[in-house]
Amino acid sequence: MIKKFLGRVFSGQIFKARQPQIVPFNVHGVARERISACALKVTQTLQRHDFAAFVVGGAVRDVLLGREPKDFDVVTDATPEEVRALFRRSRIIGRRFRLVHVMCGPETVEVSTYRGGHAIEDAGARVSDEHGRILRDNVFGNQEQDATRRDFTINALFYDPASREIWDYHGGVEDLRRRRLRMIGDPEQRYREDPVRMLRAVRLAASRGLEIDSRSRKPIRALSNLLANVPPSRLFDEMLKLLLSGHALECVTKLRKEGLHHGLLPLLDVILEQPLGERFVMLALKTTDERIRADKPVSPSFLFAALLWHEVLAAWKSIEGKNVPAIPALYQAMDQVMQAQAEQLAIPRRFGSDMKEIWALQPRFLQRSGHRPYRLLQHLRFRAAYDFLLLRCESGEVDAAVGEWWTRFQRAGEAERAQMLVHDAEPKKRRRRRRRGRRDEGASVKAEG
Ligand code: ATP
Ligand code: MG
User: Fold this and answer.
1) Does ligand 1 lie within 6 Å of residue 70's CB atom?
2) What DSSP line would sit under 133-200, residue for residue?
3) pLDDT 10s digits, 386-405
4) Looking at the annotation, which residues are catalytic?
5) How confident is the model over 286-321, as pLDDT tens digits?
6) Would you kindly state where each structural domain of the chain is located, as residue ranges?
7) What CATH number does domain 313-420 carry, 3.60.10.10, 1.10.3090.10, 1.10.10.10, 1.10.3720.10?
8) Which atom of ligand 1 lies at the shortest distance from residue 156's CA?
């Protein structure tokens, strides 16, 4: 009887929420060397001063998956002030929940104090809205509470580099082994608390090759409209993470499958229903994924410009239909599309102006006579606009010959370039036709004018 009781205690059935399962090195095999030098320094220093210190969150998950983590987070029972005092190159950041950034060389490690969850909130005195919010977020807790307020079991693992143990309160090690993404607590309640968790579920599952556990997946479709209440800037950040995950194609496909794209890119449905639009968006995502996986830089503006291009095209066409000349119509269309997006997804201004530039340069690629191609070549944004043109060609929207012409023109010497111009120019006849309203070509004439 006693043996049975003890067996249940140790298997975690009785003190489930309190006792972490301590997974030793010989079971998980994550060597200390997998942890960054800065994170090691931080945990060692904290532990030397008798504080608890663990690497936590996405980094532990990713090393267990055999991936190189993007960054390392550390949790401790030291307060932000105590942490700050131990590291010369550190600063306290955040207003609602204060954490410390510790810098070593080029690396920054985020150190946070164990955070309390609902238990503390519920037991705590009721406070006025504004105050309540600050306090609530700023309540320190213990390790178990810190684990429980995290989103998925695989994101709630604590790794102690000194002992090389993983402390696991929610069965995250086993879930990782089974490649299962499981929400801690009641999934519906957790999504309601923070709807962004639905997007995180999709992104993590798609980018790490995990299956969303059926209980965690089930409420998503019905709750998808809650994304409308999330501040646009937060949605934008999450969307950017998703698009730059190296698995954007899988993520977007999965977003659609779970019915989540309405809140993010409400226009995605429309775009993806047009064969050319779908091909274009998918190609853009595929190219981005390939670049990210090859460690090449990618530009968020380019990506957002691609996602919204077919919206711009549709708006452009409709405005031109009201007898607005091609170029003003294009500018109006760009503004209209950006405006519609601003309400859902706050695309920061700096991206917005780059996106518009990429779009506005498109008509100029159809102008291949006189000085114009030379001037376009000199444009600061030529490269991005040209890459964009190639996507348009590949998707079948623009004649492939146009893209090929520009590829050749860039590489050609002076003589060949001049020859290319001559071949392309049929000024009088074509211009007259353009003025009669062929959108793209008309646009290019006026764009230059
Ligand atoms: P990545 O860095 O690849 O985006 P991550 O899991 O590290 O993945 P972060 O945003 O860096 O994501 O968050 C760090 C940790 O904070 C997570 O692992 C998780 O434990 C916790 N966390 C992040 N967002 C939430 C959330 N919305 N709700 C609960 N816990 C969260
Ligand atoms: Mg992270």
Assistant:
1) yes
2) HHHHHT-B--HHHHHHTSSBGGG-EEEETTTTEEEESSSHHHHHHTTEE-BSS-HHHHHHH-THHHHH
3) 999 999 999 999 999 999 99
4) 71, 73, 151
5) 999 999 999 998 989 999 899 889 889 999 999 999
6) 2-184, 313-420
7) 1.10.3090.10
8) 20
